[in-house]
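Shipment paperwork, digital attachment
Item: protein structure file
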Amino acid sequence: MDTLWMALRVAVSLGVVLALMWVLHRRATKGGLGAATKARGRRAAAVEVVGRQGIGGKASVVVVDVDGERLVLGVSEQSVSLLRSGPTPAPELTIVTGPVVLPTEPRTPAPATTADRFRAELERQDHATTGLPADTASGATTGTAASSTVPLPMRPRGSARRPARAVVPTAQQLQGSVLSADTWRQAAAALRGRRAG
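Attachment content:
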């Protein structure tokens, strides 16, 4: 009976302490202490440091945006002084009304393979027999901007990229590593030798 009475007293005391802590917490967040913290948080959120440049020692120039106004401040160890103020500049927006032209790079010939060299030699011999230059015989135009430049390739995004090919190391590359089968065989033989000897 005494243990039941003692457990009941402990439970009631714990409930009173928790209720008192809850009341103090509510009063602190709703009352003066909580209001000051929230107001300070709102003021801090409205200030944005755009840039900072040290000018020597412990002095620097700081550019700050505060509620739509840009301030240039001189900051030293002893004081903060206003150097200049003005409205915050609007972000620059570019409106595209016409077609977008992709950047281009000069066309560079690809390294010739044996098949390409063979094909070029056949074309040269064919054009040598007809007497026409190679460009006019194939119908290509020369001197145009389209033939001298190629649009830059677009990179695929996300999962459209090709996965990297897995490189399988050879037995010679694995020699002496933990991944080598020979290393495991040698370790097993050494353990068997210790047990037998």
